[in-house]
Structures are given as C-alpha cells and as structure tokens.
Amino acid sequence: MANRKKRIPKLDDRVAVLGHTGGFVISSVDGDLRTVELKPIGRHFALSTIPWRTLTFLDEEDKVS
Asked: How many independent structural domains does the chain possess?
C-alpha cells in the first residue's frame, strides 16, 4: 500500500502524484520551496516544481541502522 506519511523526499524515491497517473522517480529536490522534479517510470518526459504535499511514497522509508 502506498505510504502518504509526512516525510522529506530524497533523490530516487519512487512516488505517485496527486492528479497524475503512474509512478515517478524524484530527480531533484528543492528544500527551500518544498518542491521536487520528477521523471516518470518508463516514459521520457518530466514534471517540475511539484509540491511535496502532493506526493505519495511508493516505497517504505529507509530504515535507520
């Protein structure tokens, strides 16, 4: 199940985006504006300046050792 917890996005996180179909990989993170740039999985276009609040994480957060 997709994880919609509040967390800070990181490069290469896999996410879904509110209002868009399919999965995406985070290619850039702007912590000041709280936006990300995304590359769709298996496609060749990109989305930019996507607000963090619209992301749903598809993977579990990395475990801290």
From this structure: 1
Q: pTM for this structure?
A: 0.70
Burial of 21-54, coded b for 16+ CB within 10 Å and e otherwise, reads eebbbbeebeeeeebbebbbeeeeeeeeebebee
5-22 residue pLDDT tens? 578 899 999 999 998 888
Calpha distance 33→44 (Å, rounded): 25
Sequence length of the chain is: 65
Is there a domain that residue 46 lies in? yes
